[in-house]
Write a structure and sequence with these properties.
CATH topology of chain B: Non-ribosomal Peptide Synthetase Peptidyl Carrier Protein, Chain A
Strand content of chain B: under 5%
CATH superfamily of the largest domain in chain A: FAD/NAD(P)-binding domain
Radius of gyration of chain B: 12 Å
Number of strands of chain A: 18
CATH class of the largest domain in chain A: Alpha Beta
Radius of gyration of chain A: 22 Å
Shape of chain B: globular
CATH architecture of the largest domain in chain A: 3-Layer(bba) Sandwich
Number of strands of chain B: 0
Number of helices of chain B: 4
Number of domains of chain B: 1
Number of helices of chain A: 14
Largest interface: A-B, 19 and 18 residues
Helix content of chain B: 40-55%
Shape of chain A: globular
Order of helices and strands of chain B: HHHH
Largest sheet of chain A: 7 strands, mixed
Structural class of chain A: alpha/beta
Largest sheet of chain B: none
Distance between the termini of chain B: 12 Å
Helix content of chain A: 25-40%
CATH topology of the largest domain in chain A: FAD/NAD(P)-binding domain
Oligomer: heterodimer
CATH architecture of chain B: Orthogonal Bundle
Structural class of chain B: mainly alpha
């Protein structure tokens, strides 16, 4: 079996790349290990309800008719119209630290006026920071030694304001603890504070179904339950992938959204006589990420706004300095994100009421539970601790819970195949997508783009650069 | 295809790449990029759509010829003289 391009992983980056290639008449096959598409951003049904995973909000949202920014570029590149994804904008969000709250929304003026009010001595610095961010063309790559904290310190003096601004940025995309590379900071800062949040009424499945329908319509193939166990190579070129069931599929080009560490392992598994011949380039060692999350999805008997939780997202921290790191304890209960899919400006209210609480988690603890009973019991214990700690920031919603589900780093590892269950992949991003093999490229999380819009952008730009562009 | 038909082909391609732009006022002698929001990714799409739809191969060094509508039509006339206009 042979294709022009094989794409490993039917998440948002793989689907977007697949659409680009199929549109330009390439024979493309998307390979997905799971029974469903979506990867990091998917959905599942449990006890009659549909839950999103991954998606809190689509960041990088621009309103209909915007001409610049990543979202309009994606729509043009994939030949979609504004209404295809059915985005509704957020209501508003906030960052809550001890004694100080900053509200922000899709109107950048709100955050600016909040900073003027709470940190009057910093407003000029903040405006200069914004100007610096906006002056950089989208996707500008800076040296990896330049980080968010270093840049923020050039514009702002108050450490609390720096912590508050950085918290949502790290939580929504940093693969590294405490800080993030400047290149990614610029993308995230814009996606959160300048562009803003939105969500389709039907959640992430609306986006996935639009993408998959288009991909199939263009003649693209998707194979579910088709995990890749190895990438075979000869003399520095990938020649084929081998599926878990032994099926071998040849391709001229391979795009992998599996992650850099994970892709390197597939290459190792596919080494054969080349090694003995000394004819194969060494597989560079990759740095695995280690940051991961624990999330509880609480179904409520009424909309969260009626309980006094009107925010779309709320980034809360119970200490003046947050700890964006793999916590020593099973979960970091002091800080996290509370979000509700109900709190977007839809035309009609959602039929179900949901609140999601996400905190950082220690992957080893969740991987190493001695039994399924213990795992379930620990999930219950930590969920209750997280809820109790969150009550310093929101009204008590616990009496209104009608159903609940929780996922841990173990769940994330199972469904994404990410080493360590890490969500944002390796801290070392590969911006040009290249690997040690001349026709194998990365897309998705470890290429460096973030969020739903970023993932699609990654798939598109890697398909353009390495497949379509190189062949005229 | 006649120059006027090639111009229409290019307009149809642009209408699909940048559906929100008003192309009715597009001037032939001014660069596309000065009149409509068209980044390098979109520009590459004009070339690729021509290839996909009409099998016209345009080498990268010739891309500057496509900067304006007038320039693009002039450049494409010899390449597309034997191509049939779309129905």
């Amino acid at each position: 079996m042979r294709y022009d391009t094989v794409i490993i992983g039917a998440g948002l980056s793989g689907l977007a790349a697949g659409i680009r290639l199929a549109h330009f008449d390439r024979r493309v096959c998307l390979l997905e290990r799971h029974t469903t598409i979506g990867g990091l951003n998917s959905f599942y049904r449990l006890r009659g309800r549909t839950h999103d995973v991954g998606l809190h909000a689509v960041t990088n949202y621009n309103p209909k008719g915007s001409k610049s920014g990543p979202l309009p570029r994606i729509l043009r590149q994939l030949r979609f119209s504004w209404d295809d994804f059915g985005f509704s904008p957020q209501v508003s969000s906030k960052i809550s630290f001890p004694g100080v709250t900053l509200r922000f929304s899709n109107d950048p003026g709100l955050l600016e006026s909040e900073i003027a009010l709470r940190f009057p001595g910093e407003i000029e610095g903040f405006r200069r920071l914004v100007k610096f961010v906006e002056d950089q063309p989208w996707g500008t790559a800076f040296p990896t030694s330049m980080t968010a904290r270093g840049t923020l310190a050039e514009y702002l003096r108050d450490p609390l304001l720096i912590e508050m601004l950085l918290y949502p940025v790290l939580f929504y995309g940093s693969a590294a603890p405490h800080d993030v590379e400047l290149t990614q900071f610029l993308i995230l800062f814009r996606s959160i504070y300048r562009d803003g949040f939105a969500r389709p009424y039907e959640g992430v499945r609306r986006i996935l179904s639009v993408l998959v329908k288009r991909f199939r319509h263009l003649g693209g193939e998707i194979r579910l339950r088709s995990g890749v166990q190895a990438i075979e190579s000869r003399s520095g070129k990938a020649v084929a992938v081998v599926l878990d069931d032994g099926t071998r599929i040849e391709a001229d080009t391979i795009l992998s959204s599996a992650g850099s560490v994970e892709t390197a392992r597939l290459c190792e598994a596919g080494l054969s006589e080349d090694v003995a011949n000394g004819d194969s380039p060494a597989i560079p060692s990759q740095v695995p990420g280690e940051l991961t999350f624990f999330e509880s999805i609480a179904m409520l008997d009424r909309p969260p706004a009626e309980l006094g939780i009107p925010e779309t997202t709320m980034f809360y921290c119970g200490t003046p300095r947050f700890r964006y790191q793999n916590p020593g304890e099973p979960c970091n209960v002091d800080s996290g994100v509370i979000c509700s899919p109900n709190n977007f400006a839809y035309e009609l209210p959602l039929p179900e009421s949901t609140l999601r609480l996400t905190v950082m988690a220690n992957n080893r603890f969740w991987f190493e539970r001695p039994s399924e009973e213990d795992y379930q019991e620990q999930k219950r214990i930590w969920r209750e601790r997280i809820f109790a700690a969150a009550l310093s920031h929101i009204p008590d919603f616990r009496p209104n819970i009608v159903d609940i589900d929780t996922f841990s780093p173990r769940t994330i590892r199972k469904y994404t195949g990410h080493h360590n269950g890490c969500v944002y992949g390796s801290p070392h991003k590969q911006w040009d997508g290249t690997t040690h093999l001349s026709n194998l490229f990365l897309c998705g999380t470890d290429q460096g783009m973030l969020g739903i819009v970023g993932a699609m952008f990654s798939g598109i730009s890697m398909a353009n650069k390495h497949v379509l562009g190189s062949q005229g | 295809m006649q120059p006027e038909e090639i111009r229409q082909v290019l307009l149809d391609i642009l209408a699909r790449i940048v559906p929100d732009e008003d192309l009715s006022t597009l001037r032939d002698d001014v660069a596309f990029r000065e009149q409509i929001e068209l980044d390098s990714m979109d520009f590459l799409d004009i070339v690729m759509e021509l290839r996909k739809q009409y099998r016209v191969q345009i080498p990268e060094e010739d891309y500057p010829n496509l900067a304006t509508m007038g320039g693009a039509v002039t450049y494409l006339v010899p390449l597309m003289k034997d191509v049939k206009a779309p129905a």
